[in-house]
TrEMBL record:
The protein, known as: Penicillin-binding protein 1B
Pathway: Cell wall biogenesis; peptidoglycan biosynthesis
Gene of this entry: mrcB
Domain Penicillin-binding protein transpeptidase: 404-642
PANTHER family for this protein: BINDING PROTEIN TRANSPEPTIDASE, PUTATIVE-RELATED (PTHR32282), PENICILLIN-BINDING PROTEIN 1B (PTHR32282:SF11)
Cell location: Cell membrane
UniProt key word Thylakoid: no
Xref: Gene3D superfamilies: Biosynthetic peptidoglycan transglycosylase-like (1.10.3810.10), DD-peptidase/beta-lactamase superfamily (3.40.710.10), Penicillin-binding protein 1b domain (3.30.2060.10)
Natural source organism: Marinobacter adhaerens (strain DSM 23420 / HP15)
Domain Glycosyl transferase family: 139-310
GO biological process, alphabetically ordered: cell wall organization; peptidoglycan biosynthetic process; proteolysis; regulation of cell shape; response to antibiotic
Record-annotated active site: E163, S441
Protein family (similarity comment): In the C-terminal section; belongs to the transpeptidase family.
Length: 746
């Protein structure tokens, strides 16, 4: 017997050594894998800020603000178009934004009457940015770390009053509590009471499985004692506050009171009231059973029981307890922290982050990633796709259609919105990034730009031949390009060939200046994949993703500057220290004068050419520039265009590359137009660069003419390339007088 006891003690000692190593190795160093958090851009409010009342309310909801009287932090009141908002404050990379209470009116999609009612006065107030997603550890645990000295004192005292009254007195286990629990359970014939200390609960969550066996319970007790031997009580309590499981958000588990406060109330832990603290503490017993969103009656009963425990323990006075029991749960309608709201956009963010950060660090270091996403623009983009797509094609064809939309800030290249398919919430194949499809006529502006950079050879009025021809290659194969409508028009001015998207002139010009030259232009504007040098490339056989198309059209919108698209403004560590700043980068890759001429033709596309149907949806006074694109059998429908503020690229097609009945004008353009019609913005009014002057010309005859002559058009020319021939017209004086009178009534 003695030998057996001795062997048992040796084995127990060895097992204790092993458990001790497990406890210390996990508890020391980095105790938690904290996900990185991805934020939208902050909404800045000031007199004159551009935002609609609906967009402001949606963004407040997205950021977890609750509708109320606008007095409590994280709430707002709306009366018509007047808003009163109580901000929470936020720690931005460039400094802290304090809490304020502000008032404003939305009129004509602009902020008016902006004022700070409470807090430090400021002309501009930034709202807390909405968290739009996260990059989570493989085990899908999510938490917001808190320190014990940041936690309201009522929380740990309530937790101990309910779960472990003798926490600061025991050594990890409480034999008397275990005995009382066993007796109560035996008398009830079922488990009605637990005897675990907070330390044991932490050990169970932190180190062990949830199986109910004697071996696991024995390990739990031993490890609890070891944990108490190594670490201070406050350290254990702080870890418990960050570890305890308090709910589920889809595939993510909500751990710790820091995240639970935001998840259920949309508020910081330090701002919770008595009844909210009581609810969270009560949920420790069973987060699913007492889920306040699914089972409000159970949750209310449990919360009130905890409030009574607080009263009995002397933590709150009777009157305060009575008032707290009479309050509603106060849970927000939906979690302020949910699954990634914009999976396609987050996908692009992750690819940009991969240039500088390891995936392991993104999943575990609690980085804060501040992006360029604009929730109002994203909402409009998603609506444009989901509202327009079912109306295209008709019948089964419409059901098979997919669409993408990429929106950037015209001048900075910041990606403001991105839709990866007809279901914006789908987290699978991201067509905006990975659907590489032939771009069709979207290539034509780059063909003509290459030519117009030789002003001694090409201008907007240079006649180009719209007539069929045949190329015969060395292997005997023949290629005969055709126009989409099958017609031929003879000589046409270059600007008309572009705005009406004629194929034959584009191919002729491309062959004249050389396929290699067009390839060099595309590469300079941001194409980083191989481009075929076959003549068919001149009709858009080169494949690109919608994001790549947005990249190259960004250069056209910014007068020839390659502006790399970016989704990230700044990355900080969990403590707010800046790690990376992603500033604007530009490189001039084309002559601004030549780009200006292409911009003119793209504006003509919208007024007179293949994009004119946009104005069935978009206000006529909004000046736009754009280009349609269509591939064989309508397999790919494209539209790329820009205003003074935004650039957007739309694609419509089928995943199986099947034919559709759509063109760029009947497929992608309606999606693009629907988006542009929803967003307040300025028209495109390009600055005329040095070396460009405008002249009245008769473009059909390539001659200078008078403003009031027939067929007169005001066109830009690179200095020295304007026509030298002049033609006059009869009745000039009469036309001037008529024009003067017409001008009086415009």
């Amino acid at each position: 017997m003695f030998r057996l006891c001795a062997i048992g003690l040796v084995l127990l000692a060895g097992w204790m050594v092993y458990l001790d190593a497990v406890v210390t190795s996990r508890f020391e160093g980095r105790r938690f894998e904290v996900p990185s958090r991805v934020y939208a851009r902050p909404l800045e409010l000031f007199d004159g800020a551009s935002v609609s009342a609906g967009a402001l309310e949606r963004e407040l909801s997205l950021s977890g603000f609750r509708k109320g009287d606008g007095r409590k932090s994280g709430s707002y009141q709306r009366t018509g178009n007047r808003f009163v908002i109580s901000t929470r404050g936020f720690s931005f990379p460039d400094g802290d934004e304090p809490r304020r209470r502000i008032s404003l009116i939305i009129s004509g999609d602009r902020v008016q009457g902006f004022s700070v009612i409470e807090g430090d006065n400021a002309p501009i107030v930034r709202l807390e940015p909405a968290q739009i997603g996260g990059i989570y550890p493989a085990h899908k645990e999510d938490r917001v770390l808190v320190q014990l000295d940041e936690v309201p004192a009522l929380l740990p005292t309530t937790l101990m009053a309910v779960e472990d009254r003798n926490f600061y007195d025991h050594f990890g286990i409480a034999p008397l509590s275990i005995g009382r629990a066993m007796l109560a359970n035996i008398q009830a014939g079922r488990i009605v009471q637990g005897g675990s200390t907070l330390t044991q609960q932490l050990v169970k969550n932190f180190f062990l499985t949830r199986e109910q066996t004697l071996v696991r319970k024995a390990n739990e007790a031993l490890m609890s004692v070891l944990l108490e031997l190594h670490y201070e009580k406050d350290d254990i309590l702080e870890t418990y506050l960050n570890e305890v499981y308090l709910g589920q958000a889809g595939t993510r588990s909500i751990h710790g009171f820091g995240l639970a406060s935001q998840f259920y109330f949309g508020e910081s832990l330090k701002d919770l009231d008595v009844h909210q603290i009581a609810l969270l503490v009560g949920m420790v017993k069973g987060p699913s059973y007492y889920n306040p969103r699914r089972h409000p009656e159970r949750a209310t009963e449990r919360r009130n029981l905890v409030i009574s425990e607080m009263e009995q323990a002397g933590l709150i006075e009777p009157g305060r307890a009575s008032r707290a029991r009479g309050l509603p749960l106060g849970v927000s309608e939906r979690p302020s922290y949910s699954e990634n709201r914009y999976p396609a956009y987050i996908d692009l963010v992750r690819r940009h982050l991969a240039r500088d950060y390891k995936e392991e660090d993104l999943r575990s270091e609690g980085l804060r990633i501040f992006t360029t996403l604009n929730p109002a623009i994203q909402y409009a983009a998603e609506y444009a796709v989901t509202d327009t797509l079912p109306r295209l094609g008709g019948g089964q064809n419409a059901e098979a259609l997919e669409a993408t939309l990429v929106v950037t800030a015209k001048d900075s290249g910041e990606v403001l919105a991105l839709v990866g398919g007809r279901d914006p919430q789908f987290a699978g194949f991201n067509r905006a990034l990975d659907a590489n499809r032939p771009i069709g006529s979207l290539i034509k502006p780059f063909i003509y730009l290459s030519a117009l950079q030789e002003p001694e050879r090409y201008t907007l009025t240079t006649p180009v031949l719209d007539k069929s021809f045949t190329l015969e290659f060395d292997d005997g194969k023949r290629w005969q390009p055709k126009n989409y409508d099958g017609e031929e028009r003879g000589e046409v001015p270059l600007h008309k060939a572009l705005s009406h998207s004629y194929n034959l002139p584009a191919v002729r010009v491309g062959l004249d200046i050389g396929v290699d030259r067009v390839q060099e232009t595309l590469t300079a504007f941001g194409v980083d994949t191989p481009i075929s040098r076959y003549p068919s490339m001149l009709l858009g056989s080169v494949s690109m993703s919608p994001v790549t198309v947005a990249q190259i059209y960004q250069g056209l919108a910014t007068s020839g500057f390659n502006t790399p698209l970016r989704t990230i403004r700044e990355v900080t560590d969990a403590g707010g220290e800046a790690l990376s700043r992603y500033s604007l980068e530009v490189e001039q890759v084309a002559d601004p004068a030549a780009v200006h001429l292409v911009q003119y033709a793209m504006q003509e596309t919208m007024q007179e050419g293949t994009g004119r149907s946009a104005y069935y949806t978009v206000p006529e006074e909004l000046s736009l520039a754009g280009k349609t694109g269509t591939t064989d059998d309508g397999r790919d429908s494209w539209f790329a265009g820009f205003s003074g503020d935004l650039l957007a690229v739309a694609w419509v097609g089928r995943d199986d590359n099947g034919p559709t009945s759509l063109t760029g004008a009947s497929g992608a353009l309606p999606v693009w137009s629907r988006f542009m019609a929803q967003v307040p913005q300025h028209g495109f009014s390009p600055v005329v660069p040095d070396g460009v002057s405008y002249h009245w010309v008769n473009s059909e005859r390539q001659a200078l003419t008078d403003e009031y002559c027939d067929n007169a058009r005001l066109l830009p020319y690179i200095a020295g390339s304007e026509p030298t021939q002049t033609i006059s017209c009869s009745g000039t004086l009469e036309r001037r007088i008529r024009g003067w009178f017409e001008g009086l009534f415009q």
